[in-house]
Write a structure and sequence with these properties.
Blueprint (H helix, E strand, L loop, with lengths): L11 H8 L4 H16 L16 H28 L5 H12 L1 H4 L4 H20 L14 H15 L4 H21 L7 H77 L5 H28 L17 H10 L4 E5 L1 H4 L6 H21 L5 E8 L3 E8 L18 H11 L3 E6 L5 E8 L3 H4 L3
Parallel strand pairs: 1-2
Antiparallel strand pairs: 2-3, 3-5, 4-5
Catalytic activity: ATP + protein L-histidine = ADP + protein N-phospho-L-histidine
InterPro entries: HATPase_C_sf, HATPase_dom, Sensor_HK_TwoCompSys, Sig_transdc_His_kin_sub3_dim/P
GO cellular component, one term: membrane
Length: 453
């Protein structure tokens, strides 16, 4: 359970400087005031013990324990007070109820229940003093039934309240026992010392277990958040990488538009002045768009990213990629259907995406399935789509360190983003024999024609 929600949120340096030079009496008074406030400030909200447990049966355990203890301790405490300490039957029953029924309240509000039980135990100790003849060789000031209920109440308190509250409760318990023992030394027989030790052990052990559980839960939550953030960062990095690569493709087209628009009046004679101005406007707009793209690329490029000067690869570089994979120790075969040659020239975005998908698939084989026989197949589907298939068998040996590092390192995430870029489809998954399959379909028609919107 969490501690009180009214924790101080002031600036830490200022608080540290204000308490660094205070005197010892002032520091003692400040700590005593903090302990006193902890005794009257229960945790919020008043959720039941084990309320966060996913098991319904475990959430009911505190209620069952409280009901069983109450049913046992009420009659037994009343009988002990009546027969062993000479207290009247009615008073004994009332004291038994006051000392044990607050255990039902301790499931949700243990601090309030502690106040009731603590005061009831003190009243019981003074009531028993009136029967001095019955105190010979009897436990006092804490009675046996009261000790049992009190310890279970402290257990519930330690599972709910913060450390400062537990220390305050322990000190108050010890101070009350010490005061009664000093006030009536001939009546006390050491139960105050036993109560002080047992209460400290219960609070210490249960509090430590509660804090350990809280720490583990926070760690699990942080790991979940970190994993989600890591996946999100990987996705953003891959999208930025794709955007940087596509910049070269789009920049080339924009440059061609600019050159054609600027040279149109010289290549085509007899153009009217309105047409020349239109071509001039097209060229200026293309140059402005190209400048905006370069500024956008500067935003996407991180400080450690260097500009790529090599031309962007395409489908024609896949054979070299397969050869490099074979040199890395992976027996790889490449099959290119005859109808693929008739598709040239491919759209640059499609060719680049095809190359990167094959590159990532082969890189994953090298990393995770060393020595596995791999097959790469490229075909055309009715001249409307390019189909890629990379299939590898089970690894010949356990994966060690990567032998190939030419991929982006983002694996399936990069493939998904590249297929999504051109409006295609991707199908990946393990095979029954232990291998893996990557199949991609990249449409060759314009995205505008396939966009359902």
């Amino acid at each position: 359970m969490s501690g009180p929600s009214s924790a101080a949120t002031g600036p830490a340096p200022a608080a540290a400087s204000s308490t660094a030079h205070e005197s010892l009496p002032k520091a003692a008074r400040r700590q005593a005031g903090a302990l006193a406030r902890a005794l009257v400030t229960p945790s919020y909200p008043a959720t039941p013990l084990f309320a966060q447990s996913p098991r319904r049966r475990l959430r009911r355990v505190p209620y069952g324990v409280a009901m069983v203890l109450t049913a046992i301790l009420v009659p037994s405490t009343a009988q002990v007070l009546s027969h062993d300490y000479g207290v009247g039957g009615g008073v004994a029953t009332l004291l038994g109820i006051a000392q044990t029924t607050p255990l039902l309240l301790s499931v949700t509000r243990p601090l309030q229940a502690w106040w009731i039980v603590f005061l009831a135990d003190l009243v019981c100790a003074f009531v028993v003093l009136g029967t001095a003849d019955h105190l010979q060789n009897r436990v006092w000031p804490w009675l046996p039934g009261g000790i049992i209920g009190y310890l279970f109440l402290l257990l519930a308190l330690a599972l709910r309240e913060p450390r400062r509250t537990l220390v305050a409760v322990w000190l108050v318990t010890g101070a009350a026992g010490l005061a009664l023992g000093m006030a009536f030394p001939d009546k006390s027989n050491g139960s105050n010392v036993i109560m002080f030790v047992l209460s400290g052990v219960v609070l210490l052990v249960a509090g430590a277990l509660r804090e350990r559980g809280d720490a583990q839960r926070r760690l699990a939550e942080q790991e979940t958040i970190s994993e989600a953030e890591r996946a999100r960062r990987t996705l953003l990095e891959e999208r930025a990488r794709i955007a940087r690569e596509l910049h070269d493709v789009v920049a080339h087209h924009m440059s061609v538009i600019t050159v054609q628009a600027d040279s149109a009046p010289y290549r085509i004679g007899g153009l009217p002045s309105d047409a020349e101005r239109e071509f001039s406007t097209i060229a200026a707009t293309a140059r402005e768009s190209l400048a905006e793209m370069r500024r956008l690329l500067g935003v996407l490029r991180s400080e450690e990213t260097r500009g790529e000067r090599a031309p962007q690869p395409g489908l024609g570089q896949v054979p070299q990629l397969v050869e490099a994979t074979v040199r890395a120790g992976i027996p790889t075969t490449l099959t290119v259907a005859d109808d693929v040659a008739g598709l040239e020239p491919l759209p640059q975005a499609v060719g680049l995406s095809a190359y990167r998908i094959v590159q990532e698939a082969l890189a994953n084989v090298v990393r995770h399935a060393p020595g596995a026989a791999t097959r790469v197949a490229i075909s055309a589907e009715d001249r409307s789509a390019l189909t890629l298939l990379v299939v590898n068998g089970p690894p010949d040996s356990a994966p060690t360190k990567p032998l190939e590092t030419s991929g982006t390192g983002h694996g399936l995430i990069g493939m998904v983003e590249r297929v999504r870029l051109v409006g295609g489809m991707l199908d990946t998954g393990p095979l029954p024999d232990g291998g893996f399959r990557v199949a991609a379909r990249l449409p060759l028609v314009d995205l505008e024609e396939t966009d359902p919107s």
